[in-house]
Amino acid sequence: MTNKREMALVAFIQAQNCSNLPSSWRHPESSTDFMSASYYANIGRTLEIGKFHLAFFDDRLAIPDVYSDDFKVTVREGIRAVKLDPMLCATAMGLATTHLGVGVTYSTTYYEPFHVARIFATLDHLTGGRAAWNVVTSLNGSEAANFGSDVVLEHDRRYDRADEFLQVVRGHWRSWDDDALVIDKASGVFADADRVRRLDHAGPWFKSRGPFTVPRSRQGEPVLIQAGQSGRGREFAAKWGDLVFVIYPSLAIGRPAYQAFKDHLDAIGRGRDTVKVAPAVYVITGETQAEAEDRHAALDKLAKPIDGLVLLSEVLNFDFAAKGYDEPFTSEEMDGISGLQAFRDRVVKLSGRANPSPRDFVQYTQRGTLAEFPVFLGTPHQVADQMEEWYGSACDGFVVAAGQIPGSYDDFVRHIVPELQRRELFREEYTGRTLRENLGIQAPTACSR
To answer: What is the pTM of this model?
Structure first.
């Protein structure tokens, strides 16, 4: 188990043509071999040198094409235009490392529970117990259309489906006891059949019989990541998540939100220390404050206004080209937003307007820019000061997004990690074999009959 005062460090990875910053591909030092296995292997090796707990891959099941109901601007501008299958990219990263956890985003809306249970259980075995699943419900019509559907499930119904999806997946993962495998060549017994069960699940959304085809892994089952911050999403994250990924625009907002979530964990009987909470941040460092500011400016000028409008249309499932820039959304339009409700709720709160305009959404989300997440900027000492101020009172660690790859992670590992270690906020070495052990999250046990 990890030290109580050890922050969790998670890298926010895209199996795409850019980092989380969509304009990053334009940076003169950004790698362009994002469709090669070596690209992901090299990132993983760098993160492992820095003793990161985990790299997790974001994903959507369509390129952004809601804006103007077209994809051409996305392709021309490279606004997350290439989306490889993150499972294969994460596998390449996992096989190139020995301690780093690898997490993959997979949807509960367009896949089947048995398939998801098997592919993540397999990844967990191939990596020796280092797999994680970032559970999402999918959110826009472009994704639905790619899977043959004309409609997007309503927000709460997506979570209802996701609840049952998780029941089925976990049921399969726990249908083999930890000691079911025998593999005794002398006796000819491969496994104890009394320690393997059918699931026989039949519910409103799914039927799945079993038995499951993958025995238990070294860490029991993959770590679950969740990012729900709306009311229904927060309940889902608190119920299922081991690691909760959040976006806090500021420390002042993050502290009460963090404490409220921890109190909620206590209220539902999970315990506030059983789930890690990690906000997304950008980190930009240099030998001097001026050097860090210059690097920030060089990244900041890469972004274009169209990046934000295209990505807002994608994440909110609403065509921002259909509104005047200063035209308020109607109440009906606000109620009809079927995408990421946490974004909508944040804009309403920060703007103070129940009916914000596209300008308000751009201003208060800063989608597609460095300002979308808090930016920790300065010398390594100054950055570590900022991280230390947040740690413990607003989070249990950080999801570190890269302004550009490989430079952002190279700089973080070379300069920030040693400063955190000097302050005894971060480990010198990996202390466990599995991702759960390194995160300090208890391994679940299989359910007995």
So the answer is: 0.92
